[in-house]
Amino acid sequence: MVKQNVPEFNLWLFLQSIEWRDPWLIGLVTFHIVITLMAILTRNHGNFQVVLFLMLLLLVYFSENINEVASTHWRTFSRQQYFDNKGLFISLVFSVPILLNCMIMVSGWLYQSSQLMTQLKQAQLRQRQRRQPSCDNVTDTDHRPKSD
Known about the structure:
By secondary structure, this protein is an all-alpha fold. It has one domain. Helix content is 64%, strand content 0%. Helix 2 packs parallel to helix 5 and helix 3 runs antiparallel to helix 5. The longest helix is centred in the C-terminal third of the chain and has 44 residues.
């Protein structure tokens, strides 16, 4: 078997090679922090979260197009060319944090759903207890003979 010379990918070295003091990268990190705070702080506002969720998924969906535009115009906003044709940079720095925020929102929705189902079942059990007469008040008022 022939061993190919495929360079190993090292995520840590890749992240260290990024010039994080670039103003647009500071803006991108700020964007991710704001989106994370919005996802957490609006957990009780379902309609807003659905809109936010869909907008974030659209950003991820169009990240390939964003990567293409950024690769042609990188000199206008960046000091280095980060945008390769495979989209590794935009996937790691743009799409992954957005998808993590989406996972946070879905986790919150699942937690709220489980809490709601628990409350519903408790209310059903309380209602069933109220409908059932207590054992002390039960009298057999039906004296009809049973038909065989």
